[in-house]
Design goal:
The chain has 13 helices and 12 strands. By secondary structure, the protein is α/β, with parallel strands linked by helices. The longest helix is centred in the first third of the chain and has 33 residues, at 2-34. The protein folds into 2 domains: 19-202 and 318-457, Zn peptidases (Aminopeptidase, 3-Layer(aba) Sandwich), CATH 3.40.630.10; 205-315, Alpha-Beta Plaits (2-Layer Sandwich). It has helices at 2-34, 36-48, 57-69, 131-151, 171-177, 230-244, 283-304, 323-336, 343-353, 384-388, 410-416, 419-441, 443-457; strands at residues 73-78, 81-90, 96-101, 157-162, 186-193, 200-203, 205-214, 253-260, 271-280, 307-316, 375-378, 393-399. The chain has a 6-stranded mixed β-sheet. Strands 8-9-7-10 form a 4-stranded antiparallel β-sheet. Strands 6-11 form a two-stranded parallel ribbon. The termini are far apart. This is Amidohydrolase. InterPro entries: Amidohydrolase (IPR017439), Aminobenzoyl-glu_utiliz_pB (IPR017145), Bact_exopeptidase_dim_dom (IPR036264), Peptidase_M20 (IPR002933), Peptidase_M20/M20A_hydrolases (IPR052030), Peptidase_M20_dimer (IPR011650). Residues 207-298 form the Peptidase M20 dimerisation domain.
Length: 479
């Protein structure tokens, strides 16, 4: 009899909790549905004003204004970056949940929101990675979560981090280095995609830099013995590094370009420059590769009678996955489902897919689906990686692009500026808000995520790969 009563009581309590979960979900999604036009307008405005990294003055102001209107306290000019910000809303002691916002564009990606190639500004920038949607969805999510906190008298803190220059410059690195994410229990983010997925993801760490060789000019025919060719040094270095490829881990990636090789063939060049970018999943292995490449540069300089200056340009950690958080996010994304197109959007999608040069094109209907959960790896890099080594971090992707679209393409820019992009953006906002809500209500989840974070981190202590390098605010400034 007692066991029956306890079972009934347990069932009743479970029903109450489940009922509250449904009520919270309805509350949050209704707020976001009611504000779809507002946030679509903001995303479109950022799309119409594409700005490169560290130059996102208009874009960051649009988001800051939205947050201020919603009742957040906003600080700008964070970690030496004028376009960085931290927006905070707090109702007292409780969980601290952070969200990452991006809003920088890509050079040379100008494109109208139409399903055929149509450049708006020749050589102009464009949102080929959907960061106009990225930052806006985060602001929308934080706004809805704030309303839910107020309506339920909950003690918690929301922090929205405006992070410049993800594409070029790595703004989050300087924020992580300066301790901006200290005190945050968990960080939530997302990225535009051609599919819906919330996985525990890892990726490559990356280091990039310039090797500047200095020699002596001379007439290449009349007095070549007087010259010391900086270009010879670049070529000698490249040859040594290319031989090194046989003797590095197979997961390594080594890319380079000769960015300066002289001005005239009959003049021995006294200056030449090569830019390198290297990647590897393991940060220790990556550092060792960079040291070896540096020695190749020094050897090339010694052998050619030149000298070399090595300039570290950037360094990003890979993502540290967190399955505890990812499974929560996957559950919420699955509850919401994918993105459904109307007939006009279907026609847009059909026309976009005609422009692909791939044979394996997923059906448009795949935008409705949520991909199965998995532990994944992607070979590219992101400055979110540095954040993930400071605080437990989770992310997702939603179908803001027509299925089959690759990032950094005009097809992505086109969808980012119209309703297909906006629908995916609002799905991301809902998923992030529901995930934030669940973490706030269940501190044990945060504890579990923190324990997993510490276990994966092991003995590694986070130190920014850029060292004490100043923020390269002029990275995208043309001289």
């Amino acid at each position: 009899m007692k066991r029956s009563i306890l079972c009934l009581l347990g069932t009743f309590l479970s029903m109450l909790v489940h009922g509250q979960e449904i009520s919270d979900q309805v509350f949050i999604t209704k707020i976001l549905d009611a504000n779809t036009e507002r946030f679509s307008k903001a995303a479109r405005e950022i799309w119409e004003n594409p700005e490169l990294g560290f130059l996102e003055y208009t874009s960051s102001k649009i988001l800051v204004d939205e947050l201020t209107t919603s009742g957040f306290d906003v600080e700008t000019d964070i970690a030496g970056m004028p376009t960085a910000f931290v927006a905070t809303y707090s109702t007292g002691e409780g969980p601290v949940i952070g969200f990452l916002a991006e809003y920088d564009a890509l050079p040379g990606m100008s494109q109208d929101a139409v399903p055929y190639r149509s450049v708006i500004v020749e050589g102009g920038s464009g949102h080929g990675c959907g960061h106009n949607l990225f930052g806006t969805a985060v602001v929308a999510s934080g706004t809805a979560l704030k309303e839910w906190i107020d309506a339920n008298n909950i003690k918690a803190t929301i922090k929205i981090f405006g992070t410049p220059a993800e594409e070029s410059g790595g703004g989050k690195v300087y924020m992580a280095r300066d301790g901006i994410f200290n005190g945050v229990d968990a960080v939530i983010n997302w990225h535009p995609s051609d599919r819906n997925a919330a996985n525990a993801a890892s990726c490559n760490a990356v280091i990039g830099g310039r090797f500047k060789f200095h020699g002596e000019t001379a007439h290449a025919a009349a007095s070549p013995q007087r010259g010391r060719s900086a270009l010879d040094a670049v070529e000698a270095m490249n040859m040594m590094v290319n031989m090194m490829r046989e003797h590095v881990d197979q997961e390594s990636r080594i890319h380079y370009i000769i960015s300066s090789g002289g001005l005239a063939p009959n003049v021995v060049p006294d200056y030449a420059e090569v830019q390198y970018m290297i990647r590897h999943p393991d940060i220790v292995e990556l550092k060792d590769m960079w040291e070896r490449i540096g020695k190749a540069a020094e050897g090339a300089a010694m052998g050619t009678g030149t000298r070399v200056d090595i300039e570290l340009a950037s360094g990003l950690y890979g993502l540290l996955p967190n399955e505890t958080l990812a499974k929560v996010m996957h559950k919420n994304l699955s509850l919401l489902g994918g993105v459904e197109y109307d007939e006009e959007e279907m026609e847009f999608g059909r026309e976009i897919q005609k422009t692909y040069n791939s044979k394996n094109i997923p059906p448009l209907e795949s935008a409705k689906k949520v991909q199965p959960y998995q532990l994944t790896f992607f070979p590219a890099s992101t400055d979110v990686g540095d954040v993930s080594y400071v605080v437990p971090t989770v992310g997702l992707g939603t179908a803001t692009w027509v299925p089959g679209t690759a990032a950094h393409t005009w097809q992505a820019v086109a969808a980012d500026g119209m309703s297909i992009g906006f629908k995916g953006m609002m799905l991301a906002a809902k998923t992030m808000a529901l995930t934030g809500k669940e973490l706030i209500l269940n501190p044990l989840l945060i504890k579990e995520a923190t324990n997993e974070f510490k276990e994966r981190l092991g003995d590694l202590k986070y130190e920014a790969l850029v060292g004490d390098k100043k923020v390269p605010l002029d990275y995208n400034v043309k001289n």
